[in-house]
Write a structure and sequence with these properties.
By secondary structure, the protein is an alpha/beta fold. The chain has one domain: TIM Barrel. It has 11 helices and 8 strands. The protein has an 8-stranded parallel barrel, surrounded by 6 helices.
């Protein structure tokens, strides 16, 4: 069993962080970030061509991080591979010792750096969760028997601040029924909205890790509010970021993230930190949050 799965099973407040593979073959900077946070989190969530931008593969990056002593959560999107390739990669992940997987539908290719690419979406996230359940039971999607089953621990994503919330709750329940064993959320900033979501979602008895995205500037907050559905940065947080000089924004971002994490301690099973290049601040955030 992985360190991540052990932590959730023991009902510990579990912390994960996100790490993005490089666009190219130079992994030095990525490994430098990894070294800063590897002992601070239960696992590193490795993105899969995030925002439809072509990068080093998630599976390959998971292997590299594990070779350097890290624990990983393999992100897998449905955008780029059909059901044959998705199942093949899940089998490979199992054989390589990578058992924790975050299942996502994925952003459309029109948003990325290869807009002329052909999107696949043979399966969606619910169907891929069902695929994992089938492989764990020793069958592929065509009903063929595997010579040995997988032991994949699948998770999924949810947007707790969506408005209206009802469609998210419907899909949340479908993902639980399809076999999701944990959830990582989209970024949260309004703890009241998150508490309302958690009150409903906790009845399903599936661990939920609250998503923490580090704010870098007031303009970033405004961009999130305008362009990212399901994220709502309250005015008071924007004013808080705007109240400090540019050179002091990292410290203010640390304070805000630590405060939100502190607020999440009684309304989640953990947090998932998305530092967006500011991984060096994660230790300070966790110290301020008393973790």
């Amino acid at each position: 069993m992985s360190k991540f799965r052990d932590s959730l099973s023991a009902n510990k407040f579990t912390v994960t962080a996100e790490i993005g593979p490089p666009k190219g073959t130079d992994i030095k900077e990525m490994l430098e970030k990894f070294e800063i946070i590897k002992n601070k989190v239960a696992a590193l969530n490795v993105t899969d061509n995030q925002s439809s931008v072509m990068r080093l593969s998630s599976l390959g990056t998971c292997i590299i991080i594990r070779q350097h002593g890290g624990e990983t959560i393999f992100q897998m999107t449905c955008r780029d591979r059909n059901r044959i390739a998705l199942q093949a990669d899940l089998l490979a992940a199992h054989c390589l010792g990578i058992r924790d997987v975050l299942i996502l539908t994925g952003d459309h290719v029109a948003l990325g750096d290869h807009p002329d690419a052909k999107p696949v979406f043979d399966l969606d996230s619910v169907q891929l969760l069902q695929t994992v359940a089938s492989l764990n039971a020793g069958k592929d999607l065509a009903g063929n028997t595997l010579n040995a089953p997988t032991d994949i621990f699948p998770g999924a994503a949810v947007t707790p601040e969506a408005d209206p919330i009802e469609p998210q709750m419907i899909k949340f329940e479908k993902k639980v029924e399809a076999g999701a064993k944990f959830f990582q959320t989209q970024a949260i900033y309004d703890i009241g909205k998150f508490e309302a979501f958690y009150k409903r979602a906790s009845s399903f008895n599936v661990p939920i890790l609250a998503g923490i995205v580090l704010l870098k500037s007031p303009s970033m907050a405004a961009h999130l509010n305008k362009n990212v559905p399901g994220i709502s940065v309250p005015d008071e947080i924007i004013h808080e970021m705007d109240s400090v000089e540019k050179q002091d924004r990292p410290q203010k971002s640390i304070e805000i993230a630590a405060r939100i994490i502190h607020q999440c301690k009684n309304v989640s099973e953990g947090v998932h930190i998305m530092a967006l290049g500011w991984e060096k601040y994660i230790p300070a955030i966790l110290d301020q949050a008393e973790l």
